[in-house]
Amino acid sequence: MTLDSISRAAVDRIIRVDHAGEYGANRIYAGQMAVLGRTSVGPVIQKMWDQEKDHLKKFNELMVAFRVRPTILMPFWNVVGFALGAGTALLGKEGAMACTVAVEESIAHHYNNQIRMLMEKEPEKYTELLQVIRKFRDEELEHHDIGLEHDAQLAPAYTVLKSLIQAGCSAAIYLSERF
After folding, report:
1. CA-CA distance, 111 to 137, in Å (whole number)?
2. Which residues define the annotated binding site for Fe cation?
């Protein structure tokens, strides 16, 4: 995949926002582990976090390979991600899992939109990027399902909590694509 064969602006946006999202996910899981790491759900959270670390590593590599600058909001996502993870974990395992369901559902939807956009252009030019996004989308959906299996829907005010977190995800996506 070379920059001359693809739209620079589209690739910059995709890599920047996906890098920010994977960074935010890492911070969310770090916050959850700070609160719940030594509980029975700790190994479940750790496994999902390990996959997110791989996602972030790949987007770090893509940032360098394509010379894409990170979002200027990284310091903000650092704090907000950790606070979201720790804050929902303080509600118990169900709160942490509700956060996971909300975030991963939003991210899977976001990745699906990116896949559609790239497929509408010239998909053969975007083969590597499409493979990465599809793989990560599938793993995010696994995390979503794990959250449901671990009682996310039993979190206090689940529907409200999920809606608020997803609104935050939408705002984070919008801002990270642009700044």
Report:
1. 6
2. 22, 52, 55, 104, 140, 143
**Which residues participate in the annotated binding site?**
22, 52, 55, 104, 140, 143
* Domain chopping of the chain, boundaries: 3-177
Please give the structure tokens belonging to residue 146. Answer: 């794990």
Euclidean distance between CA atoms 18 and 135, whole angstroms: 13
Query: What torsion, rounded to 10 degrees, do the Cα atoms 171, 134, 48, 90 define?
Result: 20
The residue ranges of the chain whose pLDDT is under 50 are 1-5
Task: Give the tens place of pLDDT for each residue, 43-94.
Answer: 999 999 999 999 999 999 999 998 999 999 999 999 999 999 999 999 999 9
CATH topology of domain 3-177: Ferritin (1.20.1260)
* Token code pair at residue 114: 């990116």
Q: For residues 39 and 33, what is the distance between their CA atoms, to the nearest angstrom?
A: 9
Q: CA 35 to CA 93: how far, in whole Å? A: 10
The structure tokens listed for 153 are 């829907």
